[in-house]
Task: inverse folding
């Protein structure tokens, strides 16, 4: 059995761990609120852009469609853009993303396609490198900025679109978690290039003739990269919210576990203390009786 | 009698208000939008967006970068990537 001093030391150390996890939990809760607000604020732009895209894409079809919409005509080479977090302490979030990405990659490889990975965020690099050592392409570092924003999304998007225009891949997928709640973040795989034709909602101004300046195709051509950017920006916002949510839950669990452990250790400590006292008493009594 | 004007960036909804007229720096020249403008869509170049709250009033200038403007039944919507001021 551990000595009293050792037990006391362990209790102190678990207590200080609990303080840290508790602090991290509260920080995550505060940051989560902010991240959610940011995700909410980004929604109007994405919605309007999608609406405009839908109405334009239905008008410009067939052979005139830009490459970003129509694709290259083959689907041999795939690019997976995988968005991970930069920091740990967020439970199984990154593991889940990596699992979803690996699944998708394996499926594509099994179908005989070429797969390249484009990694965003620091976590997840190591396991993906282990799983697919030859397929890691570019990496984008978001660890230098505090909150990945639209500028980062712009950089990632322009790099991806540049690779597409150079003919490095045919189809690109974005792998990121969708933030549902602090408890659930679902990793999803979404195609971003070629841009999936949005469902053509029957627009209310179907009768009105819309004038385009310069022309429909030119506008669409300008719109598509923006759409990709917005998608990536959305993914960055989702990962930010997911990270904080997952972190909050993980730290809540850690705090509770630490509490349980402290309780157990305290009981053990008290028992040993009492055992020691009893032994001492027995010794004294035995000594007195011997006299 | 007012034009509903919305200015949206990826980060947030910057403006949503009723104004008299907005002058937008379109890629093929500036154009002013009043209430009841016919449906119209244009890309925009980097420049100043002028918002006239009232007829004859001094305009408020907002610098915008990259994006496009859409005029529909609901009014004018400007989607810009960056907004200053």
Result:
């Amino acid at each position: 059995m551990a000595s009293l001093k050792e037990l006391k030391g362990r209790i102190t150390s678990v207590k200080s761990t609990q303080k840290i996890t508790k602090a991290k939990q509260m920080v995550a809760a505060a940051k989560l609120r902010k991240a959610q607000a940011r995700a909410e604020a980004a929604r109007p732009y994405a919605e309007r852009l999608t609406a405009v895209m839908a109405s334009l894409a239905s008008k410009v079809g067939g052979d005139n469609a830009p490459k970003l919409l129509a694709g290259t005509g083959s689907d041999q080479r795939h690019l997976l853009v995988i968005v991970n977090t930069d920091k740990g302490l967020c439970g199984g979030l990154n593991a889940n993303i990596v699992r979803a990405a690996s699944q998708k990659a394996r499926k594509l490889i099994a179908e005989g396609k070429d797969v390249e990975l484009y990694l965003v965020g620091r976590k997840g690099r190591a396991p993906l490198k282990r799983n697919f050592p030859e397929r890691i392409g570019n990496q984008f570092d978001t660890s230098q900025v505090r909150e990945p924003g639209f500028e980062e999304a712009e950089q990632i998007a322009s790099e991806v679109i540049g690779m597409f225009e150079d003919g490095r891949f045919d189809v690109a997928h974005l792998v990121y978690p969708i933030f549902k709640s602090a408890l659930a973040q679902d990793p999803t795989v979404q195609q971003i290039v070629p841009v999936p034709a949005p469902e053509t909602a029957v627009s209310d101004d179907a009768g009105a003739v819309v004038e385009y300046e310069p022309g429909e195709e030119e506008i669409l051509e300008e719109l598509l990269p923006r759409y990709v950017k917005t998608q990536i920006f959305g993914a960055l916002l989702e990962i930010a919210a997911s990270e904080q949510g997952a972190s909050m839950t993980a730290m809540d669990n850690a705090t509770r576990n630490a509490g349980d452990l402290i309780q157990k250790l305290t009981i053990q400590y008290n028992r040993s203390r009492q055992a020691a006292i009893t032994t001492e008493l027995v010794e004294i009594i035995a000594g007195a009786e011997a006299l | 009698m007012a034009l509903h004007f919305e200015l949206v960036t990826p980060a947030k909804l910057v403006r949503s208000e009723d104004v008299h007229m907005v002058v937008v720096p379109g890629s093929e020249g500036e154009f002013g939008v009043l209430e009841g403008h016919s449906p119209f869509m244009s890309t925009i170049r980097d420049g100043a967006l002028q918002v006239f709250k009232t007829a004859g009033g001094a305009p408020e200038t907002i610098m915008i970068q990259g994006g496009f403007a859409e005029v529909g039944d609901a009014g004018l919507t400007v989607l810009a990537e960056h907004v200053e001021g």
Observations:
- The mean pLDDT of chain A is 87.
- The CA atoms of residues 162 and 168 of chain A lie 9 Å apart.
- Chain A has seven helices and six strands.
- Strands of chain A lie at 77-83, 114-120, 136-140, 171-179, 185-193, 211-213.
